[in-house]
C-alpha cells in the first residue's frame, strides 16, 4: 500500500514533474490527487494524470481567489472536465475572506455553483476556507443533503471548527501545518481528537514545506514535495501517540473511499 497525498499542485512552475514523481515514488508516495485551482489549472492537472498513470487523480474547480473568473463558461468547462475518469472531486472551491482577491460576493457565487455541480455529478468536494468559516458552513449545510461528501483541505483550524466539519460528515485534510510549533498549536491540539476514519494527508506541495525536516531529508530548493508526506505522518503519529502504520492505512483507505468509489477501476491497491 502506498501513501496517498490528496493535495499536490504538481503543475506548479516550480516543479520538475519527472524528478518530483521519482522522489515521491522512492518515498512510497505513489498515489496522489492533483489540485485544480482554475479552469486552466484543472485542465493541466488532468493532462498530467493522463501523462503519468495509473495512480494520479485530479480535482476540477475554481479557487476562491479566482472566483471573479467564474461564469457559465467556467461551469460548463468544469462539467466537461469532470467527465474524465481521473477527475475525482470538484474543487478546490470555497471561501477565502483573508485576502479577498475576488470579492466576497463573487466567492459566494462561485462556491455555490461548484456545490451545485458536485451535487449534480455526485462528486465529492475539495474545500478551501480561510477567515470565512461561518459562511462556508452555512453553504455546506444548505447542500448537505445532496452532497456525496468532501474534505476540508489544508485544515488549520481549532477543535471546535474541526468538530463542526466532522458533524457535516467531512474528512479533514492534514498538512505540514501540524509540524509548526508556533502557528500550528491549535491544530496540534485538535488532531488528538480526530477519528482515524476521518483523516486524510496532504502536502499542498510546493507550498507549506513542513517545519523541522532534517537536513538530510530536504532538498535546498525550498519546495515542499509529496515525498515529505511520510514525515508529516511521523509528526502526527507522535502527537497522537499512535502507530504510523495506522495513519498510513486509514488515510489511504479514507482517500480511496471518498475519491475512488465511483471510479473504482482506476484505483490500484499498490
Ligand atoms: Zn487551498
- By DSSP, the count of extended strands is 8
Q: Approximately what portion of the residues adopt beta-strand conformation?
A: 5-15%
Order of helices and strands: EHEHEHEHEHEHEHEHH
Instruction: Please name the fourth-level CATH homologous superfamily.
Output: Metal-dependent hydrolases
Shape: globular
Looking at CATH, which topology would you report?
Answer: TIM Barrel
Q: Please indicate the count of domains.
A: 1
Uncertain stretches? 264-270
User: What proportion of the residues is helical, as a percent range?
Assistant: 25-40%
Total of helices = 9
Bound molecules: zinc ion
Radius of gyration: 17 Å
- Mean pLDDT over the full residue set: 94
* Architecture per CATH nomenclature, i.e. the level-2 architecture: Alpha-Beta Barrel
* SSE-based structural type: alpha/beta
Strand order of the largest sheet: 1-2-3-4-5-6-7-8
Distance N terminus to C terminus? Answer: 5 Å
What is the CATH class name?
Answer: Alpha Beta
Describe this structure in words.
The protein is α/β, with parallel strands linked by helices and 270 residues long. It has one domain (4-266): TIM Barrel, CATH 3.20.20.140. The chain is 39% helix and 15% strand. The protein has nine helices and eight strands. An eight-stranded parallel β-sheet has the order 1-2-3-4-5-6-7-8. The chain is globular and about 50 Å long. The site of zinc ion (ZN) has 4 residues, from loops. Residues 92, 128, 153-154 line the site of zinc ion. Keywords: Hydrolase, Metal-binding, Nuclease.
